Amino acid sequence: MAEYISWSPIRRLMKHNGAVIVARDAVDELVDWMSQSAEKITKTALGLTKHSKRKKVTRNDILLAIKYFK
After folding, report:
1. Which of 10, 11, 35, 65 could join 45 in a cystine, given CB atoms 3.0 to 4.6 angstroms apart?
2. Contact 31, 1 (CB under 8 A)
């Protein structure tokens, strides 16, 4: 799978939340999880969009897809 989420911003986010030292593989694991989650949510939102006979994925499609996975 191609990486679409950059390592550095995730590391900064973790540091901002108090993680002073984080292993590279821990950040890589979080990036992988985020990528997989984003892919599942996008596919679900696209299904909602197509069901509504639209081409544009909207904010509400994404919110419904996120709600579906909670």
Report:
1. 65
2. no
DSSP labels, 1-55: ----S-HHHHHHHHHHTT--S--HHHHHHHHHHHHHHHHHHHHHHHHHHHHTT-S
**Residue 17 CB-density burial (10 A; 0-12 exposed, 13-18 middle, 19+ buried):** exposed
- Cα–Cα distance between 32 and 34 in angstroms, integer? 5
Confirm whether 2 is domain-assigned: no
Write out pLDDT tens, residues 18-62: 999 999 999 999 999 999 999 999 999 999 999 999 999 999 999
CATH at residue 48? 1.10.20.10
